[in-house]
Design a protein that fits this description.
The protein has 163 residues and is an alpha/beta fold. Helix content is 30%, strand content 22%. The protein is built from five helices and six strands. The protein has a six-stranded mixed sheet. About 20% of the residues have low confidence.
């Protein structure tokens, strides 16, 4: 399962999230990985986003192995009230995995990038990578380290989704 970890400033627009996520998935293609048909195709009539509990293992398309599409957005729980996040998830028809601060903190040692600004503002030096790694589950790995733009950060991780 491929998970997109998203970090953002307060008040970010859905368009900024969508743009950066498109950039991140294009980096997968450039690296020879296939995110399949991003955004994922869903049966018509499917309600989105499906907001799930961080421990819910039913997130995603139920596909296994490499070559998966982005299956979910992993968002810090402290950003629950951001309308831009909900709008982006709805437009993409992706579920949101809300990642608690303790889980984000637990992944800091696995993150490849650090941000002094994020550390000062939210007390975590890496948000997007930590969210993606945590939500992707045990033995997850980063496919695309944090990229930033428009007040948003995005990282892609792959894992079994077994958190």
């Amino acid at each position: 399962m491929i998970v997109a970890g998203i970090g953002c400033r307060t008040g970010v627009a859905a368009e900024a999230i969508l743009s950066l996520l498109e950039e991140a998935t294009s980096l997968l293609v450039m690296r020879g990985l296939d995110p399949r048909s991003y955004p994922p195709e869903r049966p018509s009539g499917t309600v989105a986003p499906q907001v799930v509990d961080p421990g819910n293992e039913s997130v995603g398309d139920g596909e296994a192995g490499g070559g998966e599409r982005v299956a979910a957005l992993a968002i810090p729980a402290f950003r629950r009230d951001e309308p831009g996040i909900a709008e982006a998830a709805t437009r993409l028809n992706l579920p949101i995995i809300w990642v608690e601060r303790a889980a984000l903190k637990g992944e800091q040692g696995r993150c490849l990038t650090r941000s002094a600004r994020a550390e000062a503002e939210v007390g975590l030096s890496c948000v997007a990578e930590a969210a993606a790694l945590s939500a992707a589950g045990n033995c997850s790995r980063l496919l695309v380290p944090r990229i930033a733009g428009g007040g948003v950060t995005c990282a892609l991780a792959e894992g079994p989704g077994d958190r």
